[in-house]
Amino acid sequence: MTETVFTNATLVLQDEVRQGALVIRDGLIADLGTATRSGIDCGGDLIAPGLIELHTDNLERHIQPRPGVDWPHAAAIAAHDAELAGCGITTVFDALRVGSIASGEGYKRYARALATEILAVRPHLRISHRLHLRAEMCSETLIDELAEFGPEDDIGIVSLMDHTPGQRQFRDMEKFTAFVKGKRGMSDEAFQQHISGLAALQSRFGAMHQAAAVAAAHRWGAVLASHDDTTRQQVETSARHGVQLAEFPTTLEAAKANRAAGIHNIMGAPNLIRGGSHSGNVAAQELAAAGLLDIISSDYVPAALLASAMMLGGVWDDLARGFATVTATPAKALGLTDRGRLAPGLRADLIRVARLNGQPLMRGTWVAGLRVA
Ligand SMILES: [Fe+2]
Asked: Average of pLDDT values for 224-243?
């Protein structure tokens, strides 16, 4: 039997925060209350459930640390895993794009090969990894790429993305122009060609791609997510498809419609921390103030997940509620009944966090009772 005892901790429970002790035994949370044995003296630090991240592009950054550099994948996966563990994330859904554009300024096909590599090393990694396939409607190869996956890949989430310029995330063309030109260093002429090519692809394949991605998610038992909802009509379509998660709604109207349809609103941590969206969309803080924000995702900054939980705790004057957006609520939305809360019998996925001038400082991460960071 292995046992670890945390004493003098500030326990972040689902509905309240209170001082106490926590005992983990054989990988599970065994007891909450007052410790009878001595253990790790937390000195008042927070002990919270490990964070659950539903949508991160962080692995791509490790695979391609600079434009044109393809870093060895096994090393990139291990570094990504260690980074997330260090940020307090104990369960991650690694977002991989399916749906590529072979020609011109397109996106390269990579998801199947990388998924195989992740699944092969998964048992040896520090934290729990599942796959999140981001199905790009505005692409050439989505149907072929979906056909390369099956239930054995244990896909947790399929999101329906449509990044055609002039709508959703990129309905503000000025911001889109700055984003693409800045990211890819394109000339005006190449840029014009690029956007008309994307619009043509969307009108040719969009509807077919949407149907194929919805069918694949249902076939695999994956949770379906929408992405960048803007209008009530888009939310109605999502609801018809059985969508349960809405990633980054771009307007208050869409967020309200999602709430009414029983779809969880997910907002990006960088948007919350920066006080607004880089693409000119609704601010996460506005949704938080309106009580429409359910879940936070770190998107492209892993460390922002914990910072967001703390920040929302301040906004709502309720630290437990702030943490629930990155623990209990995503766990419930994904059907992960074995984690996401500090409760006896659940997996001992937890983090120790000090607070320094209101900022979180990670002091340790445990996964199934083992210290991993
Ligand atoms: Fe997007």
From this structure: 96
**223 CA distance to ligand 1 middle (Å):** 18
CA–centroid distance, residue 168 to ligand 1 (Å) = 8
Helices 173-184 and 188-220, axial angle in degrees (round to 10):
100
Query: Residue 82 C-alpha to ligand 1 middle, in angstroms?
Result: 26
CA distances from 110 to 1, 7, 159, 236, 353 (A): 43, 46, 17, 32, 36
Query: Cα of 227 to ligand 1 centre, how many Å?
Result: 6
From CA 348, how far away is CA 270, in angstroms rounded? 28
What residue type is 36 in one-letter code? T
Q: What is the pLDDT of residues 33-90, one digit of tens each?
A: 876 778 999 999 999 999 999 999 999 999 999 988 999 999 999 999 999 999 999 9
Q: Give every CB contact of residue 189 below 8 A, 6+ residues apart in sequence.
A: none
137, 196, 197, 202 from 192: Cα distances, Å:
20, 6, 9, 16
The environment of the single-atom ion ligand 1, i.e. residues with CB closer than 5 A, is 169, 228
Assigned CATH topology for domain 1-50+339-373: Urease, subunit C; domain 1 (2.30.40)
CA distances from 47 to 5, 22, 99, 119, 209 (A): 12, 9, 40, 30, 44
What is the model's pTM? Answer: 0.94
Domain 1-50+339-373 and domain 51-337 have a common topology: no
The rounded Å distance from CA 313 to ligand 1 centre is 26
Could you tell me the distance, in angstroms and rounded to a whole number, from the CA of residue 220 to the centre of ligand 1? 23
Give CATH superfamily name and number for 51-337: Metal-dependent hydrolases (3.20.20.140)
Ligand 1 centroid, distance to 228 Cα (angstroms)? 6
% residues pLDDT > 90 (the chain): 81
Decide if 56 contacts 129 (C-beta within 8 A): no
Q: Kindly give the distance from the C-alpha atom of residue 77 to the centroid of ligand 1, in angstroms, as a whole number.
A: 23
At 74, list the tokens: 């096994």
